Amino acid sequence: MEEQIDILNPDGSPAGYSCGRTEVHAKGLWHRTVHIWAFDGTGRVLFQLRSHLKENNPNLLDTSCAGHISAGDTSRNAAVRELKEELGVHKNSGDLEYLFEATHESILNDGTYFDNEYYDTYKITLTDEETRHLVPQPGEVDDFVWMTVPEFLELNRKRPERFVSHPKDYQWLESISRL
């Protein structure tokens, strides 16, 4: 059965019903997701290379980990689940540092895929052991790329087409580079 997702009103309040993921994106219904930025002990940030098989944004560098919040689930539980599924990393919700909530609207795939989301953004630090044993989820992630924040900012400035567009996340990364 297809994953069910709680639907939101455009103002972010619960609409009171759930739909399957396909319908959510076909109709552009507002929903909740999570973004997780993983760092190693030296401050490098992990980007995932989205699978070449993905319906949208294939072969682009993206947040370390991201995903939909299933109907009835919490943001933190979804983040923990996505870390396990996409990276093979086992963490608990207390390991997540909440950063901010943001909205994102995009139209992809020649106007057939609408992504209207509220997303919670988290930061997590991986141990040396975890960074050595990352496991990309087949069909979701083809590879991982580590960069310092300044390296990312420079590459994104020169080649923004290599990244999934997450302006609010990237503004946050730029802000921490100034610390």
Structure at a glance:
The chain is of the alpha+beta class. It contains five helices and nine strands, in the order E-E-H-E-E-E-E-H-E-E-H-E-H-H. It has a single domain, classed as Alpha-Beta Complex (Nucleoside Triphosphate Pyrophosphohydrolase).
Q: Helical residue percent?
A: 25-40%
Topology pattern, helix = H, strand = E: EEHEEEEHEEHEHH
Secondary-structure-derived class: alpha+beta
- What's the gyration radius in Å? 16 Å
Considering the protein shown, what is the CATH homologous superfamily? Answer: Nucleoside Triphosphate Pyrophosphohydrolase
Sheet with the most strands? 6 strands, mixed
Number of domains: 1
Q: How much strand content do the residues show?
A: 35-45%
Question: How many beta-strand elements?
Answer: 9
Overall pLDDT score? 96
Q: Report low-confidence residues grouped into runs of 5 or more.
A: none
Give me the CATH fold name.
Nucleoside Triphosphate Pyrophosphohydrolase
Can you tell me the overall shape? globular
Termini distance?
Answer: 46 Å
By CATH reckoning, the class would read Alpha Beta
Give the count of helical stretches.
5
Per CATH, the architecture is Alpha-Beta Complex
